[in-house]
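Hi V.,

Quick status before I head out on leave. The structure for the redesign project is tokenized and pasted below; the design run finished overnight.
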């Protein structure tokens, strides 16, 4: 998650130095409307002691003003989301609370070459009885096509002048969490005349996607609030060192490497924070296997962000690992909920993966390449010599044509073929639905020896034609790591949904059964939906083996998130979550239970209309 403030100076010192490797830099895949990953969650937000302004837009625009300085698109109220377009993957609606929200639907209502500059302005808000230290919070969904600019501003003189800050820079094609909770320190902006405050959302673009906003709140800004933001396990930085140290969900034991555990830390409070320390703890086979702390930062000023790191950890055994990132300071933090985050990965005998282990979406050829031969896959960066690439595991989505032919190929970073598999005819029982992971093993005709310092693409492909082949995807990749290749045209692009395409190393792995991250031990048992199928209501029942933070998500067959609930921290024992059939169409859905970052998925069917 990312938190932004009214400050325009974000301190993000470079963590890494080193010789940059030479690799092609690919353009993003040209499908407009790339559908974002649906394994999303609302970031932890502060419990509000007192709200001084709150607008949910549940029933309408409620006194706000929408105007257009340029273009034909305006802010509008909706309770359904963006209009239907011819995009291969439509822009999803904001996953918000009940009722409506506000939206600029530039993708649907705009046109090529049409510039847009539109504003959504609040009525006058009297904050004269509020404290001087205030923050603005709102929920949003935004994804970047090429030229969008999103501004949030405050005026205290009737709109004559505005203090504003641009947010959402560098979000990318696949967006960020849906919804994403944003908070801004507006204390200085409000000070001019607290009795005459107006909030403004301004969107400027040239036919791009759009912006969706809801739940605008002004509340107390705590004195002391540090937040862990965007924790990472490796030093991957394509711009600095190319494809070195890519972040994986499963590492083969022969290719583990030193990790750089690091995070951004942001002072979201009103007061400076002192002796800020980043701490990490790694639990692995046998218990805690590593702890470490960064050098203290003497002072972190309000709105300031810093990047802190801990070195010295290298996985050494096959098994499951949990990395807990946390931050401490001298002051007593008033919002402890955002002081820590956890990530998970595994070390296996021979599997090498970047996906999250359970199908969330799929990827086929783009709209400009329908019927063409295409391949999708992921780079692996080789740390150690001596390993042989033996096979490619791939999951195919269940809307693919049974009997279609797929194949595997290993390519270098210039797309030259290094090794190939025989063709494989897809069988009905090999297709993966939402929440599933049925891997098809494609064995290379000859094992490929891996060279230290090399990066190769592990790809699965379709020969095109009338048969439909869509490869399952799960989670997100960094830019330049996941590639889609059209051999017939020579076009190569990156995208950021992670294909469920995995490398399998030899020797000793021919009979290896791949275990995905979703199959790592989850503290759940007795999981089921009762009744299933159901009409009016169903109970998603489960038993927690031990206490944990629980989230529930329900997705439709397209991967669209239709229901999401953070249940907070629940105690050990039997639990249940009620699902209201009135919110669902008659269809099959995938549900996911997430406990402390680990997931278990299943299916439910609604038959009520």
């Amino acid at each position: 998650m990312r938190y932004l403030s009214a400050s325009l100076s974000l301190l993000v010192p470079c963590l890494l130095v080193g010789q940059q490797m030479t690799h092609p830099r690919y353009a993003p895949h040209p499908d407009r409307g790339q559908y974002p990953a649906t394994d999303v969650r609302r970031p932890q937000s502060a419990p509000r002691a007192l709200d001084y302004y709150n607008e949910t837009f549940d029933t309408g625009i409620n006194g706000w003003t929408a105007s257009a300085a340029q273009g034909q698109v305006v802010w509008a109220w909706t309770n359904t989301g963006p209009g239907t377009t011819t995009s291969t993957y439509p822009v999803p609606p904001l996953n918000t609370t009940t009722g409506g929200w506000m939206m600029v639907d530039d993708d649907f209502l705009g046109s090529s070459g049409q510039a847009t500059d539109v504003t959504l302005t609040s009525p006058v808000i009297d904050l004269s009885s509020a404290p001087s230290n205030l923050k603005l919070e709102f929920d949003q969904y935004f994804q970047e096509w090429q030229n969008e600019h999103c501004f949030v501003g405050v005026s205290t003189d009737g709109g004559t002048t505005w203090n504003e800050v641009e947010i959402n820079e560098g979000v990318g094609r696949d967006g960020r969490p849906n919804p994403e909770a944003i908070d801004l320190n507006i204390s200085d902006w409000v000070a001019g005349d607290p009795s005459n405050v107006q909030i403004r959302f301004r969107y400027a673009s040239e036919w791009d996607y759009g912006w969706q906003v809801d739940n605008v709140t002004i509340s107390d800004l705590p004195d002391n609030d540090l937040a862990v933001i965007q924790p990472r396990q490796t030093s991957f930085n394509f711009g600095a060192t190319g494809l070195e140290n890519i972040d994986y969900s499963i590492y083969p034991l022969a290719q583990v490497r030193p990790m750089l555990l690091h995070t951004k830390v942001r002072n979201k409070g009103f007061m400076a924070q002192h002796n800020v320390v980043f701490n990490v703890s790694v639990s692995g086979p046998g218990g805690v296997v590593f702890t470490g702390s960064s050098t203290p930062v003497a002072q972190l000023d309000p709105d300031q962000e810093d990047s802190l790191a801990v070195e010295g950890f290298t996985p050494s055994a096959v098994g499951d690992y949990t990395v807990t990132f946390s931050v401490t300071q001298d002051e007593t933090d008033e919002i402890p909920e955002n002081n820590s985050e956890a990530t998970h990965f595994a070390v296996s005998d021979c599997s090498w993966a970047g996906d999250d282990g359970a199908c969330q979406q799929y990827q086929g050829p783009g709209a400009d390449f329908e019927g063409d031969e295409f391949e999708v896959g992921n780079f692996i960066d080789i740390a150690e010599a001596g390993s042989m690439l033996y096979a490619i595991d791939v999951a195919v989505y269940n809307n693919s044509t049974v009997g279609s032919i797929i194949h595997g190929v290993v390519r270098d970073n210039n797309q030259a073929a290094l090794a190939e598999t025989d063709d494989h005819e897809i069988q009905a029982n090999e297709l993966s639905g939402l929440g599933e992971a049925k891997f098809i093993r494609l064995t290379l005709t000859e094992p490929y020896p891996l060279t230290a310092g090399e990066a190769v693409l592990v790809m699965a492909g379709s020969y095109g034609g009338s048969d439909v082949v869509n490869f399952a995807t799960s989670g997100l990749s960094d830019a330049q790591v996941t590639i889609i290749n059209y051999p017939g045209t020579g076009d190569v692009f990156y995208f950021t949904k992670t294909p469920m395409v995995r490398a399998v190393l030899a020797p000793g792995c021919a009979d290896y059964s791949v275990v995905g991250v979703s199959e790592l031990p989850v503290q759940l048992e007795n999981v089921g939906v009762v009744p299933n199928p159901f009409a009016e209501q169903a109970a998603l029942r489960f038993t927690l083996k031990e206490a944990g933070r629980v989230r529930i998500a329900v997705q439709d067959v397209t991967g669209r998130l239709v229901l999401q609930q953070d249940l907070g921290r629940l105690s050990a024992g039997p639990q249940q979550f009620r699902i209201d059939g009135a919110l669902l169409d008659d269809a099959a859905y995938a549900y996911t239970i997430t406990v402390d970052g680990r997931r278990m998925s299943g299916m439910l069917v609604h038959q009520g209309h």
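Above is the designed sequence. Confidence is low (pLDDT under 50) at residues 1-21, 32-49, 508-521.

G. will cover questions while I'm gone.

Best,
W.
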